Amino acid sequence: MQSIRLVHFSDVHVTTPRLGWRRRDYLSKRVTGWLNLRLLGRGYRFRYANRAAAAMIRHVLDRPPDHLIFSGDATTLAFEAEFAHAARLLGVNQPEMPRGLAVPGNHDYYVGRPVRDRLFETYFAPWQFGERVDSHHYPFAQRVGHVWLIGVNSSIATFWTWDATGFVGPPQRERLRRLLHSLSPGLRILVTHYPLARSKGQRERLFHGLRDWREMLRIAAEGGVSLWLHGHIHKPFVLASERFAPFPIICVGSGTQTNVWTYNEYQITGHRLAMTRRRYSLSEDAFHDHDVLELELR
Predict the structure, then answer these.
(1) What is the tally of structural domains in the chain?
(2) What is the layout of strands, in order, in the sheet containing 100-102?
(3) Which residues in the chain come in under a pLDDT of 50?
(4) Who contacts 2 (Cβ-Cβ below 8 Å, separation ≥6)?
(5) What CATH number did the domain enclosing 243 receive?
(6) How many other β-carbons are positioned within 10 Å of the β-carbon of residue 31?
(7) What phi and psi values does residue 5 have, to the nearest 5 degrees?
(8) Residue span of the structural domain in which 264 resides
């Protein structure tokens, strides 16, 4: 029976001291984002982000998986210096790294210019190859053994600082529907930054959730999705109740937030998924197995 091993991480928010501010940045929400980072606690929560991210990559390379999955938020304010630093730290272009799939998070699309300049798509290009239904970048699918990984962009640039909502939108949803129905047989795993719901199936907060989650749930169910992987919510959880969705949903949590810092490994054998959650020890500067879970994928 065929078996593959995947490593999934998200929300690393690596930091760099030189951001490269320009005059127009002082008229955007980057100013309040920077104040939150420096003065209001976010910077403190991610004070060990670079160290934890480096330890995670070292641990991954000790026993390389068949494929990597990154579900977004490489940066904090979407400056190009942050993208360059994140790509280096995560080993995106390193020849010894396994192949990967990456989709952007809302912090990677923090304001409009990085989106227009396609900074995430440029720096994470090696992790964005795949099959597409037309010339649009998203969605795309990658084949790994008997599994299809499907990357969807659920992030958008928003104007207000407090608006952290996501939106896939009708055109991309239609492309996703077509892509799901065009793929050859195999387990289908959907990868987004945004979740469908919170840990107990409740709706996300008004300014923090995926606006078109109902439409995405319907397309995923009709398209035979077996598993939904995401980030955005920094504390990890598994939602496996069929009352909410006909497939399990796994939030990997943040790989670098202090006292959360987790990533997941999935061993998929046939239709059986064995998940190992790993947590970072600051004192040892290393990740260790934390807990395990098994799920049956349809």
Answers:
(1) 1
(2) 100-102, 67-70, 3-9, 262-269, 272-281, 286-296
(3) 26, 34
(4) 145, 146, 269, 270
(5) 3.60.21.10
(6) 14
(7) -125, 125
(8) 3-296
